[in-house]
Amino acid sequence: MAYIIRTILLLACLCGLLIACGEPDATGTAIPSGATSAGSPITIRGVIQRREVTSYQYGTHTLLDTAGRTLYALTSDDSGLLNRHLSEGVLVTGALRAGYPLDGGPSLLVVSATSRSSP
Fold it and tell me: What is the pTM of this model?
């Protein structure tokens, strides 16, 4: 029971932090805008890379911040969408998929749109 309460408190703190941050910052660090629950649309700034071998095996690409840290695993119903802006600064719009992260990996973002942006 104590584990469940701690988990709920941790998730509530993380959601509050993400919501309080608002829009992408000037350094290109990805910060969600709007709601952060699964299925809610968010827009993130970062750099798209193809996913390499990782401890988690989901998503076809990753979104990195300017320091090269993985922010999200990415997938899309449009197979070419994520390849259009490889290694470029982009704004990515999508929705978090419920049930992720897994195996210590990042959250999974289902991408619906991308646009070029300064990192």
Answer: 0.65
